[in-house]
Write a structure and sequence with these properties.
The chain is an all-beta fold and about 400 residues long. The protein has one helix at about 150-155, and strands at about 40, 50-60, 70, 75-80, 85-90, 95-105, 120-125, 125-130, 135-140, 145-150, 170, 175-180, 180-185, 195, 210-215, 215-225, 225-230, 235-240, 255, 260-265, 270-275, 280-285, 300, 305-310, 315-320, 330, 340-345, 345-350, 355-360, 370-375, 385, 390-395, 400-405.
Length: about 400
């Protein structure tokens, strides 16, 4: 069992180990600064959305890329619906477009509108991205000038997956770690592969997680047939756990907790917590009635907060569960599909239908603080909170940025 107030999370980027709150100054990559969609609230944060206004809004193109932000710049990606994909950089305070970088790219609208799945990773003076059809790009963060590019289909010797590439680039020392059935480490400086894992599993659409267990670094990588634990230095598989999903399509990212000893995986068929001892995986608990097809849960003080049900399903429930046992603490039926982050002690929830909702982080009961309808069309992209601003978007590319009144 994880003691309250002693929860630690091994982040997917940079192997930071900390308490469950970090600064809200930057959101430099997918899942936020600590890799868990949880950030500290700025001093002016107000959980009542009635005290917020729209600071600026843009159309950024089709897709599901979250907004990432660092050094006063906000980044995202989109597709024009024809043949062009674009990486965009805005002034985070004003919405002024600072630069854009476009290239020919496939839309891949398979049972969705299409467009990029990945989010921009900001690393110092450069940014890294992955297109829907597998183009890995390194650009100067200030100017958008191309530094290098690589093609995943060539590196991994594979075709474009049915739903496109979904992994966001994850930094590990001098490499970017990317997963798509196989996992690859690409040198951050020149775009050349450092290693490629041995087994070509059916491609998944989540991102890899880098974590440390007893002084050794590992990668947790979900594909559409299960979870692989790899040696982070060379990509050799250490352990394997099979997982199933409808249509053999897993689009979820695993989470690693408790100093690398607990690994949380979920699909559209079940949820499972696995123990990892450095060489093997063992099931701690599973629940075949607890399912989620896209977005992860938040783990705060031993309680999981998330949604139980799949996308495009109004019957999906909002829940709080004990992480050590899976026991339900509370549930809100027929909430509808949603994604969420935590800002300090507040849950910030974006429903699939475009409602932004706030509620206290409370393991005993759910109490809604405020709700504001902001977007139409489908919203599968996590909100972002950085620099005192909230960023939300829908799949059609409408991006709305909120700030305190």
């Amino acid at each position: 069992m994880i003691p309250k107030k002693l929860l630690v999370l091994t982040t997917s980027i940079g192997l930071f180990i900390s308490s469950h709150l970090l600064r809200a100054d930057d959101w430099p990559h997918w899942l936020g600064p600590n890799g868990d969609n949880i950030v500290e609230a700025a001093t002016n944060f107000d959980p009542d959305l009635n005290n917020w206004k729209i600071a600026w809004e843009k159309n950024v193109g089709l897709g599901y890329s979250t907004v990432t932000s660092a050094d006063g710049r906000a980044f995202t990606m989109g597709h024009d619906g024809k043949s062009t994909e674009t990486i965009l950089c805005f002034n985070a305070a004003t919405g002024e477009k600072l630069w854009e970088y476009s290239y020919e790219g496939k839309l891949i609208p398979a049972m969705h509108v299409g467009g990029p799945n990945a989010s921009v990773t900001v690393s110092g003076d450069v940014v890294y991205t992955i297109s829907k059809d597998g183009r890995v790009v390194c650009l100067e963060a200030e100017s958008g000038k191309l530094v290098w590019s690589a093609q995943l289909t060539d590196v991994l010797e594979m075709g474009v997956p049915k739903w496109g590439f979904g992994s966001s680039p994850v930094e590990y020392k001098g490499d970017l770690i990317i997963s798509a059935g196989k996992t690859v480490a690409i040198n951050k400086t020149n775009g050349r592969p450092s290693w490629v894992s041995d087994t070509a599993y059916k491609p998944g659409y989540g991102s890899p997680i880098i974590f440390n267990n007893s002084g050794k670094d590992y990668i947790a990588s979900m594909d559409s047939a299960g979870l692989s634990i790899l040696n982070a230095k060379n990509g050799k598989e250490i352990a394997r756990h099979e997982a199933r999903s409808k249509y053999t399509m897993i689009a979820t990212t695993p989470a690693v907790f408790n100093d690398g000893k607990d690994i949380y995986i979920f699909t559209d068929m079940k949820t499972e917590v696995l123990g990892f001892d450095g060489s093997s995986l063992s099931s701690q608990w599973e629940d075949r009635k607890l399912k989620n097809s896209l977005s992860g849960s938040l783990l705060i003080d031993g309680t999981l907060y998330g949604v139980n049900g799949n996308h495009k399903n109004s019957g999906t429930d909002l829940y709080a569960r004990d992480f050590s046992t899976g026991a339900e603490k509370w549930s809100v039926p027929n909430y509808g599909y949603a994604s969420m982050i935590a800002v300090g002690e507040t849950l910030v929830i974006l429903t699939e239908d475009g409602d932004l909702v706030t509620a206290p982080v409370d393991a005993d009961e759910y109490t809604e603080i405020s709700r504001k309808k902001l977007l139409d069309a489908i919203c599968w992209t996590n909100p972002t909170y950085v620099g005192g601003r909230l960023y939300v978007r829908n799949e059609h590319g409408k991006l709305i940025v909120l700030e305190r009144v």
